[in-house]
Each structure stands twice: as structure tokens, then as C-alpha cells.
Amino acid sequence: MRRFFASLTLVLLVALGSGQLAQAQSGSTTSSLTGNILDEQGNTIPGAVLVVKNLQTSFVREIRSQEDGAYLVTQLPPGSYEVNISAEGFNTQNTRLDLVLGSTALANFSMKIGATSDIIEVVASTSIDEGKTESSSNIDRGNIDSLPINRRNFLDFSLTTPRAVTDRTPQQGITVSSMLAFNGQNARFNNITTDGLDNNEPVGGSVRSNFSQDSVQEFQVVSDSFSAEFGRATAGIVNIVTRGGGNEFHGSTFLFLRNEAIAARDAFSTIKPEFKQYQFGSLLSGPIKKEKAFFFLSFERLSVKQNNIITINDQSVATARRQGFSLRNGPVPVGQATTSILARTDLRLTPNDTLWVRYNYGGSFNGAAEPFGALVGETNGGVQEAAENALAANNTYLNVGLNLVNETRFLASKRDLDLSIIGNDPQVQIFAPEGRIVFGRSSFLPQFRELETIQFINNTSISRGRQQIKFGVDLKYLTFTAPLAFFATGLSIFAPLDLSAFTGTTTVLSGLQSFDPLARTPAQRAALTTLSQTLPQFVSGFPANVPIQDLAFPSFI
Prior knowledge:
Layout: E1 2-14, E2 31-39, E3 49-54, E4 60-64, E5 70-76, E6 79-86, E7 92-99, E8 104-111, E9 119-121, E10 125-127, E11 135-139, H1 141-146, E12 164-166, E13 180-182, E14 191-194, E15 197-198, E16 216-224, E17 237-242, E18 250-259, E19 276-289, E20 293-310, H2 314-322, E21 330-350, E22 353-370, E23 382-399, E24 404-421, E25 427-432, E26 435-439, E27 447-464, E28 467-481, E29 491-494, E30 497-498, H3 500-503, E31 508-509, H4 511-515, H5 522-538
Parallel strand pairs: 2-8, 7-9, 14-17, 25-29
Antiparallel strand pairs: 1-28, 2-5, 3-4, 3-6, 6-7, 8-10, 11-16, 12-13, 14-15, 16-17, 18-19, 19-20, 20-21, 21-22, 22-23, 23-24, 24-27, 25-26, 27-28, 30-31
């Protein structure tokens, strides 16, 4: 099955009036800063110069306040900034602010009359943005670094935000979801973006690329009322931005080890099976040329060796083996592994033109992607292998004279995902004494998917004081190939079978006895021998003397 998808979204957001800036979110990759510049008597100061400098990269933006003293700085990468405000006849002020992803910070300044050469360090007056309409929370770099998390899956931090819970939908098959449910919706209805670009599997709604926790700058979780430019979601949005380098070199390395020595024995296993978990990674970032070009590199690897416990009893295992099926019980070794690599380069082409390019690779292996264990045999499972290569770019251009900011984003990615079979025996389900046991090839395997994505986004925002006009286009082209297999080797179900009406005596076969003639008692075999001689009386055209005592009796095929 080969399908092509194309989507085109045109968004026009207009904020008018003289009150607070009416915008839902500042953008999927940036922050905004707005406020008023006044004197000590509360009078507006038009034409005040406001210079915003990124402390990591020394990137500078400069604007002037409008006639009403209002200002708006859009399309600022999230991070720490130094803000310098100057006006003729007033003391120059400096302050520091932290801007978070997708939010508009409100900072008002009161300037004192004095010599322009004086510099006063102040703390900006910040308050809640009254123009905010969405319900959102931000997980910044500090939280990502300090909060404990299992297997370093940073998306789990989303569970600390309101309206987000773990999705209880069974996670199996070729596309596992983010497992984040917002407002009671299925996790497959979310929209996951990275650097403002799509990161979703289009058919199953799963997360496409995995990233190292160290490569994430911060992310925003939006549960409802999100801006139109985010779109394509009936549940929630997780908006992720990756890290870039700065003027200083930084590096780190981590290693996590865990084994069976500090793990309890499984209650269903007579021995303590092997368990080993290794997780390690490293990052390096810094300047290629200070204040001009920067790099960021990260690598992370997770490797897990563990066991799934199969609790099918020995009698059922022996019965299946007598019929030529592959089945075992007890601990069965399985492995899991993920690898993520990210490389990013940031360039300052001109004072008003920036560009970054990112490459990332994500690979994974799961020996029990189609799960087995308990009463499900190993041969009913599936092994998943996935690999994705993606190239993304972002260009931001500022026209100071027009107060115009244009942002262009581009993504090209290819994802290959294979879910293969473990065993090729026909699938069998038996209602045994311990419950319904399942073994043999899964009905829906193998599955193979190939996804190619091309995405182009262009957004333009024009500011006038604290008002903003924003419009843009989002074009996405997908190529999706996915052959599907259904019941390739069939399915047989064996349930208890009552033949008393045909034999004249009490003859009830259990599920195991329906499946395996050798498990039948002498009395049952004698009754079935008699039945084989009388069946032609009940079934027209049935041949006489068929040795049904040696045949299996499935309830469903």
C-alpha cells in the first residue's frame, strides 16, 4: 500500500486595538517580550531604544518604543537575555530576563530623569500576560537537568503539567504512542513538534523521532486553546526546541548501570533471570567563531537485557510440542536498545539574519514490540527495528525599518520501520486449565513501513507597538508505504467440546484434548471410535469409519 499525503495550511492572525496584545502563543520555536516604557510620573516615553541581547550567543535585537510607550519584540529564541533601555534625558537601565518557549513575557520599565551616561541595574516589572488564551506549561532546561526520570525520556516530564495523564490504551503494534493523554483524549490525537516541525507518524499517531534528553533546550505542553498555527490536534500539543551552541565551550558525559543484583526475583520465576541496563551519552557545544557561528553535538545510547516470564504450565507446553509447535515457559531473554544522535550548527549571517541547520538520527530495537509473556508464547511476539534520518533548517530574517520578522523552516526526513515475526507456526489459541494460551505467528505480522516527509513553513509577523499581524503557510508532503499481512498462517481456536449428544455417553473434551488427540483418555477415545461409525447418520455424505479419535477438533478456524 503506497499513499501520498499533502496538506496546506494558511494562517492569518490579526491583533488590533490599543489594549493588551491579543495573541495566544508567541510561536512554536520562539518567545516574545512586550511592555511599556514610562517615566516616574507614568507618562509615556516614545522613541526609547530597547536593546535585547542573548547572553549565550550575543545575538542582539534593537527596537524603539511607539508613541504610547509600548514595545513588542517577537521571534526571540528562548533563553536568558540582557535588556538595555535608553532615552534622551533619562538614565540608561539594564536588566536580565529569562524568556520561555511559546510565551510572551510582559516587562514594564519606569525610567528616571538623569544623565544618559549613568547605568542603573534594575529588575524588570513582570506580570501575567493578560493576552494569553491557551492553557500551557513550560518545562525548562533547569527542570530537565534536575528532575529524576526513568530511562531519560524527557516527554514524561509532561505528566507534571495540568490535564496530562498516562494514556492507558494498550501499547503494542508497529506504532507506539507518546502515552500522554490530555483532557481524556487518546494519545494518538496529540501533535508533537520539534523546532516547530512535524514529529508525528501520520497514520498511527505515534512519535516519529526520539531525541537525547541533553539535546532538548525546553518544551511547552499545551492542553487546549492553542494557536491556529499549531493545529492538527484534537488532544494536546507538545512543542520541543533543541539546543544550540554558544560563546562558551560546554561538555558532559553520563553513565548509568543497573543489573539483577539490585533487582528482586520475579514472583513467577524460580530463578533470578538476567537483567542489565546500560545508558550512556555525551554532549559537546561551543563556538566555531564567537558571536558568529556555534555547534552542538549529542549522543545517547540505551541498552536493556531482560526477560519476559511465560507462565504456561508444563502440561500445556508438552502438549504443544507433541504437535510440532515451538513453545517454552519460564524466563525468555529479550533485548531493547535505542540510539540518538544530534548535530546542530547555528550561524549569524548578518546582524539581522540567522540560520541554523540540524541533523538527527534515531534508531531503536525492541525484541518484544509485539508483546509476549504470561499466557502468550514467544512465537506470538514480534521484533521491531526502526531508523530515522532527518535534516532540518531554520532561517530568521529581521527588517528593522518595517518591524517585520520572517521565519522559514524546512524538514526532510525518512523513517524505516520493520516489525518482523519470531516464529512461523500457525497461530493457536487453547482454553487450557490456566486460561487462554496463545502461541504461533501473530495474525498481523509482519508489518513494514517507510515514511518520507518534506515540510516547508514560512511565517511573517509585522509589529506596530504592542499590536501584531502574523500570517504564514505550512506545506507538508508525505510518502507512505505500508504492506499489511492479515492471518497469513491462519488461526485455530480450541475450546472445551461436549460430544455427549452424539456418543450416548458423557464425553467432554477439554481445550487441550480438543487440540491434542494423545491427551485424550481411553474412555474418550473409545467413545469417539463409536461416534466415527455413527456420524454418517447425523451428517449426510460423511464417510464411514473416519478415525476422528485421532483428529483435532478446533472450535474456530
